[in-house]
Amino acid sequence: MQLVTTIFIVALILAFLLEFWLDQRQIRHVLANRGQVPDEFADRISLSEHQKAADYTVARTRFGSINQVVGVIILLMWTLAGGIELLDQFWRGQEFNSVVTGVGVMLSVLLISALLELPLSAYRTFYIEQRFGFNNSSIKLFLGDTLKQTALTLLIGTPILSLILWLMQHMGGLWWVYVWAVWMGFSLLMLWAYPAFIAPLFNKFAPLENNDLRTRIENLLKRCGFTSNGIFIMDGSRRSSHGNAYFTGLGKNKRIVFFDTLLNSLEPEETEAVLAHELGHFKHKHIQKRIVSMAIMTLIGLGILGFLMQLESFYTGLGVSQPSQYAALLLFMMVAPLFSIYLQPVFSWFSRKHEFEADSFAAQQSNAARLIQALVKLYKENASTLTPDPLYSAFHDSHPPAPVRIAHLATSGAK
What we know:
Layout: H1 3-32, H2 47-78, H3 83-92, H4 98-131, H5 139-170, H6 175-198, E1 205-207, H7 211-224, E2 231-234, E3 245-248, E4 255-259, H8 260-265, H9 268-283, H10 286-308, H11 312-316, H12 325-335, H13 337-340, H14 344-365, H15 368-381, H16 390-396, H17 402-411
Parallel strand pairs: 2-4
Antiparallel strand pairs: 1-2, 3-4
């Protein structure tokens, strides 16, 4: 067995065992605390609501374990079982140029993988989400979304992959610098274009018509020095009863978005507090910081790829007989998560740090007590567990656990 194959198999086993172990910790911890609401929430969340959140969390975590098993099987199918090799030979047989061949192989892998994962996605939507009362989607809408996502993948993925592969083949030893610049430019373009051109393909966005709430929000925006391209209500209830709010976009194309489900459950003062939290991300430049961190990680990843693609054993050890730029890129994209998983606690820590900063900003600009009330409502309505396993949370949760977050807000000066 080749060294690369051995490293790959060991990394795959270790990553799977780590994720499975974390899942089991989460399930045990949540079930052990299912029988009692944490004291700090006892007067605001009923035992039945707490137990629903526990059961929902356990169901999703168990489903996550199944997803991991399927993911391992699909990864082995593409690599050691020869899936990529078969597609590579098929596209080479069409006698296209190397860029078209590479795009054909990569898009084929992406589309076939999506098709293989479709039953699990349907199960999650129409069984788990349906079972706990969150799914509002129909089969027609679900399939329509799938077709739209596939079309966007082809429409957007084909030109960007073509350009990246052309650069890898023609830019010599500095190809990775050009690819990095193109990828970052593309990422920024998508951040700018998403709210205006892509999101409306899936959801309807209507201007906020509640004059009292609009006035309250506009006053908050002035206090925070934030300008946007509008305040919109999204028909999130069309697919799910989960609630959320966010701002998106870059430059003059920024917009504030509230799920209709969120506005239906919150009072105006609570909505203002939630928006103040989102504006806290803007004020602390969290988006820019994440873009910078993504740029650094992308540059490091391309550097590692540049080294690996020169090794013939990198290809043969992962089931591909003929080296090529596209095979190297595809294999690296598949294998890299097996090693980056150990960085997840670092990324999660930074994300939770940003959430704390945004909460503190909201407490200063709005009302900490109102934000606490809003968060508790969101925990109830989204069936978010109040008692996650600490280690599981450290790996997977971008937001602080509910008791920790509420305690932090309380010390920020609840009014």
